[in-house]
Amino acid sequence: MKSLQLLAFTSAAAFTILTAGAAAAQTARRDVEVRRDPALPEVERGSPAGIFGAKRQLTISSDAGFSISNTSVSGTSGSTTRLELRPALDYFVVDNLSVGGFVGVDYASSSGGHTTTFSIGPRVGYNLTFSERFSVWPKLGFSYTTTSVSEDLSPPGSGPTVTTNDSSSGLALNLFVPVMFHPVPHFFLGFGPALDQSLTGDPKSTIIAGRLTIGGWI
Length: 218
Description:
13-stranded antiparallel β-sheet, 2 domains, 16% helix, Porin, alpha+beta
């Protein structure tokens, strides 16, 4: 009888120790996971975003659409309605690193007149994948631009419209940081902030806007 009681006590004690040890180990593993340094998650290579940006991929896209932007020209600012069309080609020379170029036509209209800008230039980008369908693809470039401005000089209700036309050309810095959505392979949509900053010419302008991109790759 004593032997059975001793065996039962020993078994209960061993079970308690093992249970406590397992719980402590599980807690320790959770603590390690919580303290793990943040980093980009691993993404399945065969997913739509996982295969985007591989070496030798050629993308065809257009930063096109309708936007309302805040524009500052020579110290003055105002709201401008802008229509953009910027077809582009980009080639990934190595995984995630792209080089390319674009041409663009921008039409901006405000209460005082309208502006038409033609641009062409190179750019470089780097793709960062953080899920199976999303990535970030910042692109930085320079462009040569020619701008035509038509300004309404007549006061409202004053009779016939009096306009003046002017044109200028120069270099501009172009930055675009879209968050990319890859619903299926070979196709993407993106949206993000954009900056176009004049570097030469007069007057200089700064354009900050949200921009949409759509395209695919082969």
